[in-house]
Each structure stands twice: as C-alpha cells, then as structure tokens.
C-alpha cells in the first residue's frame, strides 16, 4: 500500500506542481511534436524513482512513464475545446487506473474485492452517496415541477446547471457532516446558504421564488440527513 501512495503522490506532484500552464498550452498546440510532453513524462518517471528510492524498481517507473505518455497523447489528439473538462476528468481517471494496475502487476498486491462487495457498510456508503447525486436531483426536480413552472425563467441570470451541482454538493456535505458526527456543521452550511440567498430573495421581491427556494433547500437537506442517519444505522 505504501508503494501505491508514493505512486499517486508522484503523479500529483508531476501533473499539478511541476507542470506549468505554458507547458500545457504548448502540448495542446504541438501535440506529439512538443518537447515539453516528453520532459513532462520523464519527470513522472524520475519522481517515481525518487519516491520509491530503489533503483531495482525502475520497471515501475518506466511503466508509469509510458502509460502516462500514451494517455496524454490520446487526450491531446481527441479532446476539443468544448470537451476539455470532460477529458481532464477522464485523463486523471485513466492515470489513476493505470497506477493501480501497475501497482498490482509489479508488486503482486491483491485486493479482496469479495470482502468489499459483501460488506454492507461499504455497499451502503456507495449506494447512498450515489443516490444523493443525480437521482436525488431528478426526484426533487419532479417533486418541485408544479411550483417551478409558475416561476418566470431567467436563464441569463445563472450558470447552466449550477443549481443542480450546488444541490449535489450541499447534500454530499450534509451527508459527510452527519456520518462524521459534526451536526453543528450542518447548521453552519444552512446559515451560509441563507446568507448568500438573502440578497437574491431581497432583490426579487417574489414570494413564490422565496417559497420555492425554501422548499427545495429543506427537501435537499432533509434527504441528505435521512441518508446520513440510514448509513449510521447500517454501520452500527
């Protein structure tokens, strides 16, 4: 496990601390012809050797460097201006997956997936966290639809899908606070949201909007709280 942590640390240092924005732009412009791409890959390999501090582990460093190069090239030649965010997430996910596979392959480490799958606490956590994201957003959207239709739409006044992601984040925060026993943080989060929303509600002078936001917030927080309590009962 220590080797895996060192490999992830090497990735974080190489990709985020030792890669200037100018290198990223040059790679996007010149792709495989960019010298910065190969310097970047070399840095990753050297970081692995440095953190592992064992020259006999050079095959791991080489494997990390080569897979990193392949993933970066795939990203550079596939991403478009509109898909940069998607490809950034996919790129990081593929890097972490390759690190996990290399760690297992070279160290003969084993993960007891059966015990994980059979653990109700782990499955309960995954299920509840997943439920609090998109599924809850869809459920609340349908519950509030009849009131949402009566409120004038102002698409230019907010970011696209911002409300959905704010709701997901706040539910995950509330869930985390509850399962860790920090109930006071839930009150702080609710107060903070109320402060930010106060200006919008004051300017709107629209009672329907105020009631809609209040109902949505209470439903969102309430769902997260119930999910947290369910997990606590499973984890006992």
**Estimated helix fraction:** over 70%
How would you describe the shape?
A: globular
Report the β-strand fraction as a percent range.
under 5%
Instruction: Tell me the number of helical segments per DSSP (H or I, 4 or more residues long).
Output: 12
- Structural class assignment: mainly alpha
Q: Tell me the series of helices and strands, N- to C-terminal.
A: HHHHHHHHHHHH
Count the beta strands. 0
Number of domains: 2
Radius of gyration: 23 Å
Query: What summary fits the major beta sheet?
Result: none
Indicate the mean pLDDT. Answer: 88
In the predicted model, the low-confidence regions spanning at least 5 consecutive residues are none
What would a concise description of this structure say?
The chain is 80% helix and 0% strand.
